Hints:
mainly alpha, single chain
Amino acid sequence: MITQQITISIIILIAAIPLGLFLKYLTDDEKEIYKKYFPVILWVLAIAAAVFYNLNVPIALTFTATFITLFVWNWK
């Protein structure tokens, strides 16, 4: 069961970069809006992922995938 959850999380991690690039292309008009909020959200996700790596790995991998997606989405 846990191995299956980790496998799904790794697949989501692999899909995070193309998803971030697609969302960046799709929401180019809202760049000013998300440039304000994403830096704060990225810090929260990074800290949450670091904490959850000791508690629950699938949740930590989900936080990491979300972090990667938002990081790529916010990238210059």
